[in-house]
Every structure is written in structure tokens, then in C-alpha cells.
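Pasting two entries for a bug report.
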Amino acid sequence: MNIAIKINNLYKNYGNIIAVNGIELTVNSGEMFGLVGPDGAGKTTTIRIMCGLLGADSGNVFILDEDIIKGRKKIQNSIGYLSQKFSLYGDLSVDENIEFFAEIHNVKDFRRRRDELLSFTRLIPFRDRLADKLSGGMKQKLALACSLIHKPKILFLDEPTTGVDPVSRRDFWKILSQLLKEGMTIFMTTPYLDEAERCNRVALMHEGKIISLDTPTQIKQQMKYQTIEIITSDIKKTYKLFKDTGGLEVQIFGDRIDLILKDEEKEFVIIKKLLDENSIDLISKKVISPSLENVFIHLVKKAG
């Protein structure tokens, strides 16, 4: 299998802050790879280094067998990049923005390609609208169209669906799915663990380090403890009680709590007693398969 991206021992500091701490990874051609983590984990710094927009302090990055330092210009003609924030021209129309990016990439006969992309992203009815007048989801689709005008081999996406409504988010993923079918390599960062489930492989990033890298299924199988989901008569009080008690790994998700237990049979007797003593009713309890979010929180706590 061909390797599209290879990173060796990559470091980047901002003063005393270590943003990227010795990460290593490879991405195969035609793969969707997700770099997942909370704000401040180092995701954006990593993707900007990979696109040649930011220099590393040490380490090597190879894109399509080219060193990012020596072959930056050649690499940038072979990749598309969609940044975290909308960075197109609000006073230009949809058509004009795509034309501008075609000129930057020296795409001569761009009109047919532009029409294909507008159809692909369902933006044809809005082609004359100024970018500033588009909704958040439409802006992201326009940014995607601009990043695809020169037919890149690799598409880099930095948190592409952050702040996008659920319908537009779903449409965006349909577009990405089609690009994958066409053989494009996609490298994306996201804070959303449910999105990471769609990737072929995922790297979980925390404080500049990769703490796990594998397929979503394999990462979830790293959870050796049991995940117990409970609902009580007072979730907030229950969560505070468990946190204050100490010794319990507890995760809250809206109206439910997930407990990560080594021995459910023994430990839940203590938990039930704790609830009874504090006049909290246990409404439901079930063993569930751990989600990526469960595993990520567990690994972060394990890492201290």
C-alpha cells in the first residue's frame, strides 16, 4: 500500500508550551485519517506543519514522498487545505471565489471543473451570492470547492464541521464519502469523537502527544474495563457525589452517567449503597459497549 503522509519525531514549541511532542504516524493513500483531540491538543499546529504553512522545530514530514521543507511548492500544488476558520473573500461571489483559487493554482480551463464542484456541493443556485451572505454550512462547502479546484491528491481538513448545523454537517460527510470513493486521501482534525468513527484510522491526541493510533474498532477494544451506563433521579447530584467520593472513574453525558469499572459485580454494590444513602433513585443501569469518547477520556485520565 502506498504511503501518502509520513511523520517522524515531530516537535513544535511556542515558548515554554510544547504544542507537538514527538509524534509519529503514517497515512496510506486513499485513506481517511482522523487526528482527534480537544482544543489545545496540537491538532491545528500539526496540520499546518504538514501543509507547509508552519515550520517545525525538529522532525520530518514527507507528503507524497517529498520532504515538506525541500519540496514545499511542489507539495502545495498536490494538496488541498480547508482551514479551521472561513478564510475566503466575503465580498466575492461563490463563482468569483472559486475562480480566484483556480488562478492561484494556475488552473487554466477551470469553468467546467467549477461547474462540477458547484453541482457536487449543491451550490449552483447560490453561485452569484456573496460569500458573506452564505450560511455557515454553505461557506464550508464553498471553501471545500475552492480547495478541490486543482484536483489535489490529498485533502487536509482542519475541524471542517465545527459550528456547522446538523443537516449541513451530514451533507458535508456525504461529499467526503464520495471523494474517498474517487481515491482521494483525506486527513482531518476534529474534536468530535462521533465523526472519528467514520475514519479508517484515528490518532487520539492529548497535550501534543498521540496516546493511541489504530482503527476506531481496535481503539475501543483497548478498554479492558466495563462501561456501565446509569440514569438516576438526579444526575448532577449523582455525578458530584461520585466525583467527591474519589476512586471512581465517572463520565457524564447529558442525562446519563457512564462508570468505568474493573469489577462491575463487586463495585456496583458499593455504588448502589452510596445512591441509597443519599436518597438518589437508580432509574436504569446497563452494560454498554465503550464509545471512542469513553476510551479517549479513560486514556487521558490514565495519562494523568
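Entry 2 (this is the one that rendered wrong in the viewer):
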Amino acid sequence: MKIVVPFAAGATPDIVARLIADRLHNTLDRTFIVENKPGASGNTGSDAVVKAAPDGSTIGVSIGGPLAINTLLFGKLPYDPRKDLTLITLLVTQPSVLAVNAGLSVDTTRAWIDLIRRNPGKYALARSAPAISHLVMEASRSKAARNWCTCPTPHLRER
């Protein structure tokens, strides 16, 4: 049995997949191999699950990016998550946290936004690949702090 993770080893979906593989092994007395297939913001591994033989020997563990968000971010996916995949269960939930360097001396979102507005182009945003947290930060940047500096994200299309 194979569990495909569309992200690199050590990412949250990988950790979850390895915990599940161990539990399934103990419960079903079968070997489960976790195979990481990172690339294209999770699309590569998700496509591998779609293209696997429909014999039940391959399952995927993913996050919302390749299953929902990427349908909005990419012009064309090699798969349609609504038609090509069947979601079985929600495995975990993970909070999103906004963190800043303590030296900034801001302790609320409002103070942080005000600081960015007072200093156009001074601050940069670090974030992971497209995910809910990425979209929240892009929405915040667009709505509240239009003048902060951010790394270019060429795969995001302006709407």
C-alpha cells in the first residue's frame, strides 16, 4: 500500500501520513509506504494519486492547497479535485499564526498594519507556498496594507 504526500518530507502532511501509515500497519497488519512527490504547489503528488490504478492500493494525504485553493491559483490543473478524487476524511486541523520579530514592538494586528503603512516598502513578507495562510496574507496586503514590500508570486494571477 502506498500513501502519496504531495509535499516534501518533514512537511505537516508528511508527518500526518507517517503517523497514519504506522497506525494502519498496526491495525491492518499491512505495510504502508509513504511516498513524497513534491512540486507545483502540491499538484504533482495530487496528480500521481489521480493517475494511480483505481485498485485501492494508493491513497493521498494532502492539505487544502492542491484540493481546493490551487483551482483558483492555477489556470489549468492536470486533474480536477472534485471529479478525480474522493475525499475520505478530515485528518487534522492546524491553526494559522501571524508572528513578527519581537523587536518591532507591535502586539496587535492593527499596530502591525499601522507600522507597515507608516513605512512604505520597508518590510517584507515571508510565507509558505500557496495555502490558506498565504491567501490570508495576500488578502491582508491587498486590503489593509497596500504599500508593504512582498516577494513576487508569479503563479498568482491578478483578479
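Dev reply: Rendering is fixed now. As a check, the viewer should reflect this: The longest strand covers residues 2-5.
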